[in-house]
Here is the input.
Amino acid sequence: MRIAIVGGGLSGLAVCYHLLSKDRTLKIELFEKEGIGSGASGAAAGLLHPYTGSLAQLNWGSKDAIAATIQLLNAAAHAIGKSTYKKSGIVRCAINLEDQKSFSKIVQTQDDVSLWDPDHTYNQTGIYRPALFIPGGLSVYTDLYLKGIWILCAHYGAKLVSQTFILNDSAHFDKVILACGADIANLYPSLNLVLKRGEILICEKKLIYGIIGNGYLSLTDQSNICYLGTTSRKDLKYITLDEATNLIRYQIDPWVKMDIKVLGYKSGIRVYRSLDSYYPIIDQLDSKTWCFTGLGSRGLMYHAYLGYILAKAILQQSSNLIPRPFKISNKTVI
Here is the structure.
């Protein structure tokens, strides 16, 4: 069976890996004009933990999803010969009273987190805020991770096609999987997806923990380099480094009092199902075409787990294997 996968980010690589893990006879061509990880996945900060969202609530299937991501992280690390993540722990700072109330509720029901008072947070991070500490939180080295997954896929026989995919190309394949992030909005505008551009600054700063507040700071595979980010713009145009720095520092500075040297930045367009639902979309568009998109800010959490489910659904030719919250027809938040 010939399969086209459109998109070389987290979702495209994950479903490619899981398809080939199940059937090495598949002929898979992965379309990514600018190269592996050139889109939003390559600009991901790399903070992996289950307490995402404005209220820091546990997400649907987060335990299984993160376990699947860690399994793929380890496989990629073995393939590339380098660590793809660090169990750094993540400090989620309270920005307002609502955050503090939410954190207090979480520690009453979950035994894998703890509360830090402002003094302890300051001693550990230099930020004077009460915080939720997530010791199991990971800092993922996204660039290395993406390269490692692709090495595995290429070893199993996948071919990289460095050109833009158009719908007419579908005629050459038995199955087409659209995992192309922002481009899917042009291919299938009826999905009514929400697009937002984000930037992360590449900074010279040594961190011990990943830090989240009104923005975030994350570790990289270089001990003296971190990412600093917060932007999420409906205006999708490119901006300059100075403009990105000003936008991010304007939001970060009120709660992060640090001298940080900016070296450069990355940018990418994230795709969301809607503004009121964090569930990605996995579904069958027609007899040949499937989609895997709308991961938004939860790509690291869900890509491996949902990539496995999608691969199984495609090979068994049954969209019924896809959980209802991720179907296109689902409009409710459970």
Helices lie at 10-22, 62-80, 97-109, 118-125, 142-155, 184-187, 241-252, 299-315. The longest strand covers residues 261-272. Residues 8 and 309 are 18 Å apart (CA to CA).
